[in-house]
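Students often ask why we bother encoding 3D structure as a string. The short answer is that it lets us treat folding as translation between two languages. Here is a chain of 181 residues written in the first language.
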Amino acid sequence: MTHTPADVVIRLLLPSDAELLSNSFSQQGWHKPVEQFRAYYRQQVEHQRQVFVAVIDDNPIGYICLLPRAPAGPFHSLDVPCLSDFNVLMDYQRQGIGSMLMDAAEQAALQTGARSICLGVGLHPGYGAAQRMYVKRGYVPDGSGVWYRDERLPISAPCLNDDDLVLYMEKMFPANCNDLK
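And here it is in the second language, the structure alphabet:
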């Protein structure tokens, strides 16, 4: 079922979303435990992360986290906001919902006075659509190379092409810009 952007509301995570999100992702075979979303909510209350949730008819269908700074990787010691754990239910992908979530998170980062925003993206084919979207939105590799399990991967080092193999990217915000449109 296709939805229009008018059907979608973007808001911050609520405690009641935890079970709904966990169950919905579980139904499509993605492991997202209820406790993960409960922890995210606690962290949101403590200003350690913001979790933007896409909702249609009171049903959460996707989310993205905005962290005040990167927990690992080349941006770890810098004061650069970081996008993390970005997921939209498969039935709602390719309808602009992910872009709406990213718009909300980027706008929130911009409002903190940040000059840029970063993210790490997986390199296996399951991340192909995300890789393309990030480039189209102005994210570029930071130049530090490939990282594996939070460590910069040396040349010729062995690794697995799993969720821990990532490329870090950054998007610079336009100077004197209050709107990312």
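Translate back mentally: The chain has a mean pLDDT of 92. Keep this in mind for the problem set.
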